[in-house]
């Protein structure tokens, strides 16, 4: 079930929340924690004597604002850059007020909190245009700073932009005043709509997850059947060998029912005979174990087909369902934003911190390493797996903190044929690499370091503000 609000429904929910603020008296409600599903950011807010959840649609299948007391089911909670931004700016803050634009579906949440440097005040604005979400954050501290999602960087302001709603004129805000009156809202209906929405999302993800798991099981079963067939062929070969071993052992190469055996020309009769016995013995010994494996996997598939067993929802299943706001991907202003340079062999991402290059094939890997990288550049690769090469080049000494390593690992997963959402990554400096002869795009390495990385689907957002 999609939840896409019109202006009047959004106005009614905002009006009800403002009424709760009035009932709260002199106490400001506090944002105690912030969670997210693939399509909602959820603010858990403590009012006087009661807690409420404010659901903020991320766009797509969910737009607008809903007040409810349901929590996000743990199975579909996600963590991404958008949630990190909400937590960094709003978590544990007190809400001074909430407003709605008179012209369009834009809300402004004004918050305040104390930190070591004094009082921090933020205005967090959300604009739902069609099924897209744009957002804007204004920070009021020693200086005014503003972040527009469609531009992607924090910029200084010379003065307080009091008319924040008008900033959204840049992305198509309606210039006509809306003439609607607030209506009563039903919290039970809000809860019911959210519950049905999550139920539909979970069912869809489970269905897709089951389909993937079923395909994986079918492939696994087929591989086991192929292995079993080979072992049975060896058993048949052994029966034939016992009847006429001379015919087998006199030839350097012998084939029977897809069983091939090759002898060294220098091996004598008894050495060849022992080789045949050893291979046949191992094959026949493994037949019962492979049959047990096949039976177990077939039972798993039968359970899945009979809907007895549902697969567990994993992070990779949620990845494709995450709805991101309109967040700038390619940014060029003042050299602070990301610029992409792309050809058939590689991509180069340029940021104010460093340049990150991704080899798309063997020639691209070699070209980046030999012609583009410096000796002090860092090289990254998936451990014990086929993957793209990633190289970071920086003018100054670069500190490889975990967030940067997590970004690089996510890029490796994105640009490689890696099905998992986790990899073991290795990295070292380019000066410790050595090309392998007659093997384009491959290297040997030393002084490498190892780290386990979990894929972050919002890596483009992270790199845009690097």
* Overall mean confidence score, pLDDT: 84
In percent terms, what proportion of residues is strand? 25-35%
Count all strands and give the number. Answer: 23
Rg from Cα: 30 Å
The gross shape turns out to be elongated
Strands of the widest sheet, in order across it, are 15-16-17-19-18-20-23
Question: Under the CATH scheme, which class of the largest domain?
Answer: Mainly Beta
Helix content: 25-40%
Poorly predicted runs are 330-337
How many helices? The count is 10
CATH domain topology of the largest domain: ibrinogen binding protein from staphylococcus aureus fold
CATH architecture of the largest domain: Roll
Determine the oligomeric state from the structure.
single chain
The secondary structure category is alpha+beta
Distance between the termini: 36 Å
Features:
ibrinogen binding protein from staphylococcus aureus fold, 10 helices, 3 domains, 466 residues, alpha+beta, 23 strands, six-stranded antiparallel β-sheet, elongated, seven-stranded antiparallel β-sheet
